[in-house]
Amino acid sequence: MGLRQLPEFEYVAPKEVGEVCSLLQRHETNAQVLAGGTDLLVSMKQRSRSPRYVIGLKQVPDLDRLSYQDKEALRLGPLVTHQILVEDPVIRKRFGGLWTACSKIGTPQIRNMGTVGGNLCNGSPSADCAPPLIAFQAVVKVIGVKGERSLPLEEFFLGPGKTALQAGEILIEIVVPCPPSRSGLVYVKLPARTAVDIAAVGVAACITLDGKNEVCRDVRIVMGAVAPTPIRSRKAEEILKGQKARDAVIQKAAQIASEEARPISDVRSSAAYRKEMVSVLTKQAIEQALAQAKSA
Amino acid sequence: MSHKQLIALRINGEGREVAVEPRTTLLHVLREDLSLTGTKESCNAGDCGACTVLMDGRPVSSCLTLAIEAQGKDILTIEGLDQEGRLHPLQQAFIDHYAVQCGFCTPGMILSAKALLDRNPQPTEEEVREAISGNLCRCTGYVKIVEAILAAAHPNVTI
């Protein structure tokens, strides 16, 4: 396979966020932040990234905090690892799709090291955490030398490997609003292998049902790995909104989602197979989200 | 540009000081500086699990861990498992159940298994398979490995 040793670099571990931002600002494209290392160090070994300065985040206090209070938003610091979420029964119960995504990333080893923040900031179109978080309407807080700003996660991804982070900025918090009652949130991942693989296709569905009847009040369907960024399938959502989700309606929504996907062919999958699998996974995600919503 | 700095690591309960560059991985330090060659280098990219060590009780890929960032953590390698020359029950179970062929995946497998049993002493077969899902084995087909781990967990049950 020929992966070489890491290239030479300078390592700095600031003790506060301001210093991280000013280092990034000063060194621009010559610097990268290091969270879990499961993406950055691999790409450095492959020489697709060779920052002269690696800025470790682990000495900055509190970046791995996770807080959730009933009926309030879930707040994740950028260094919260996937495993921290996997081991949290509240996350599993209340934020099911996010839990699923984190539990299927990489390997147990990667889940102990890799962070949700890093998964997003790496900007891969197949980032598993992205579809469920976008379906949850998550907001990301970003901080730079000029201060803090917030943006919907849906606007965070600009292209493969490209996020809305500007020079000198880092992700400082992920805020996930509390799902309304009678909601189901599901993420379905199709990897090329049974484990240890990136999603060939990923679909998240978040459905909120209306009061006592089974009309879909709110629907968000988000697809990963089938476009340059994670994308919503708004047309599929429109099919379901305001409807009772009978089989024919679900089937139609799944079909529309498949038409909205614009995947490429690569080592994991052909574009045609991905398109086909979008409809299969969307149907599964919608059905599972409905079941969850009905029993919520 | 890169100069070495002295770092203090805690490996198998012992304090060890090594001089490392920023780019030196924990895997490299273990094998090259500390001669603890039980931890293996294989894919070097976090995919195969051969480099697995336990860090504060959790399995991690040492090929993707900077030695500098391993300071302040308790690192357990396969060499740290035996107790005064007596094999750990997992090691014995791997032998008893023929779970070792070439042996290259074995240190990482055993450490992943140990991390599981320390948290979940009575795992199901599915939980065992999940726990070793980050450790690839090219020889055994995994069946004997799973049997060995279950046997170590449920010593009174005939596998």
Walk me through this protein's architecture.
The complex is a heterodimer of chains A (296) and B (159). In chain A, 34% of the residues lie in helices and 24% in strands. Chain A has eleven helices and 14 strands. In chain A, the strands form four sheets. Chain A has a five-stranded antiparallel sheet with strand order 4-5-10-6-7. In chain A, α9 (234-240) runs antiparallel to α10 (247-260) and α10 crosses α11. The longest helix of chain A is centred in the C-terminal third of the chain and has 25 residues, at 271-295. Chain B is an alpha+beta fold and 159 residues long. In chain B, a hairpin with a 2-residue loop joins β1 (5-11) and β2. Chain B is built from five helices and five strands; from the N terminus they run ββαβββαααα. Chain B has two domains: 5-80, Beta-grasp domain (Ubiquitin-like (UB roll), Roll), CATH 3.10.20.30; 89-153, [2Fe-2S]-binding domain (DNA polymerase, domain 1). Chain A binds chain B through residues 1, 3, 5-11, 13, 34, 37-38, 41-42, 45, 52, 54, 56, 58, 83, 106-110, 112-113, 195-196, and chain B through 1-2, 21-23, 25, 28, 43-47, 49, 52, 55, 58-61, 64-66, 68-69, 112, 115, 130-131, 133-136.
